[in-house]
Design goal:
heterodimer, A: alpha/beta, Transcription Regulator spoIIAA, Arc Repressor Mutant, subunit A, 2 domains, five-stranded mixed sheet, 49% helix, 20% strand, elongated, B: alpha/beta, Heat Shock Protein 90, seven-stranded antiparallel sheet, four-stranded parallel sheet, 10 helices, 24% strand
């Protein structure tokens, strides 16, 4: 089940109708709490698209509360959309503190990883993304590694909620949309 | 007896010490008169520093405004008197000028007490920052966004750490003396508990071992250089780190004075001392951020 959350609407609803900037920690806490509630209202493990399109400024404190702590606290899949360069810089800085990573949907619809990801993980993720789906033997064949190593890579990405595992197949999160 | 302290002709972060030094030697309830008649120029740091000093006094100090018409009206345009009237006993008339009319004033002197004030500061400065930084200081639009992020974070430090309200002001001007270029300057001050006491309030923090150094200087080093915060949360302490990162890319300068120490992240164009200690005690913290105009030469450096 896919859930779309427009952050600027959440900001206006949960903090102040006049705000368009995600700044200050109390604002970040209020916005994250509202997102947590919206996600909790949906049964099961859901995919949530967090849309920054109408958010002006995002400072480090809000990036920490709205993005990093959301990933730490909520058991679900997230795709982040509508981010501009300065948003990404604030998010990357805060993700680095926790060794976290996330999936960003770019303007052209393609996806990329942002945050702390090793080179091998990033390569594996990109391949799964390009193929639309993959299993460990296929990835191992392409990378020239042992199937067990490929499976370990894919499982790491799945545990980090950067891919979805269904039985022995791994899917990009964006493909669930 | 009233103690008269002359405000320097040019009031900036360096010359502010000439006000602070004599004032720090006086009892909090001593009568003080700040004589600014000869003052011809003041940076945002100097102006909000005066407000903060007044806040820290037990007895309302007196103030004689600058005699020079241009200086006095400029102070009015920054919003100084609007706040000073509540904190000082002002002698003589002060000019009445609507704030915001001064093109150099990116943000007139604004009190910061709670998070809503930070939102208000960010909302007010965003459009002007984008316009002035890009057109006058050749700072690109993405960097002007980061400039406002930095402003947001330093203002939040007041709300989260000072334990009292503070002030912020942002201004651009030609910095002939030190740089010969235009700069944009953010000044933030508060009369709160300062960096050392803030860090000492970290839950479970152990007192320093015998022989270990712990003072205002080491507290500033911990907060500014190592990103230590009084909160245990791993996500804390990013604001100053982010500001340092941004300033590094734009040859900016950061200085923070708290208690009896002052730390500075010094770019190549400046010759400031990275850490000064044993200064006159200042209640709370004073932050100054300076970003110079981008020129072809500075971009290539």
């Amino acid at each position: 089940m896919i859930h779309h959350i427009d952050l600027s609407s959440v900001l206006r609803r949960s903090v102040c109708a006049l705000y368009s900037n995600l700044v200050t920690r109390p604002t970040g806490v209020a916005v994250r709490s509202e997102i947590e509630q919206l996600v909790a209202d949906r049964p099961g493990r859901t995919l949530t698209v967090i849309d920054f399109t109408h958010v002006g400024l995002l400072d480090y404190s809000c990036a920490d509360e709205v993005v990093a702590k959301l990933l730490l606290k909520v058991d679900g899949y997230f795709v982040f959309r509508g981010l501009h360069e300065a948003h990404i810089e604030a998010i990357e800085t805060t993700l680095a503190r926790y060794d976290l990573a996330l999936v960003v949907e770019q303007i052209d619809g393609s996806a990329r990883l942002v945050g702390t990801v090793g080179d091998a993980e990033r390569t594996a993720w990109q391949m799964v993304h390009n193929w639309g789906r993959a299993d460990a033997p296929t990835l191992a064949g392409t990378l020239g590694t042992a199937p067990l190593d490929a499976e370990r890579l894919l499982d790491t990405l799945s545990t980090r909620r950067l891919l979805v595992r269904i039985d022995t197949v791994y899917l990009p999160i964006g493909s669930l949309q | 007896m009233t103690n008269v302290i002359a405000v320097p002709t040019s009031l900036d972060d360096e010359s502010f010490e000439q006000v602070l030094g004599p004032l720090a030697a006086l009892a909090p309830d001593a009568k003080v008169l700040l004589d600014a008649r000869r003052t011809e120029w003041a940076s945002p740091y100097g102006l909000i520093g005066l407000l903060t000093l007044a806040q820290s006094r037990a007895v309302k100090p007196e103030l004689i405004p600058p005699e020079t018409h241009n200086t006095a009206t400029y102070w009015a345009r920054t919003g100084f008197y609007q706040h000073a009237e509540a904190l000082f006993e002002i002698h003589g008339p002060v000019p009445r000028t609507r704030g915001g009319a001064e093109s150099q004033v990116l943000l007139e002197i604004t009190p910061v007490v709670q998070s809503a004030d930070v939102h208000s500061v960010v909302d007010r400065i965003q459009e002007r920052a984008q316009k002035i930084l890009v057109s006058e200081l050749s700072i690109d639009s993405q960097a002007s966004i980061r400039f406002v992020m930095t402003l947001s974070e330093v203002c939040q430090n007041i709300v989260e750490h000072a334990g009292s309200g503070g002030w912020v002001a942002v201004q651009t001007y030609k910095w002939k003396k030190r740089l010969g270029r235009r700069v944009v300057q953010i000044a933030v001050t508060d009369a709160g508990i300062g960096f050392r006491r803030s860090l000492e309030s970290l839950p479970g923090r152990q007192p320093p071992a015998p022989g270990d150094r712990w003072d205002d200087g080491t507290a500033l080093e911990e907060a500014v250089i190592r990103g230590v915060s009084r909160f245990r949360d791993r996500g804390r302490g990013q604001g100053l780190a982010g500001a340092r990162n941004f300033l590094g890319k734009w040859s900016g300068k950061l200085s923070i004075r708290s208690g009896t120490a002052r730390i500075a992240i010094v770019p190549s164009w400046d010759e400031d001392t990275p850490l000064q200690e044993d200064l006159a005690p200042f209640p709370g913290a004073q932050v100054q951020i300076t970003i110079p105009e981008r020129t072809a030469a500075s971009a290539a450096a």
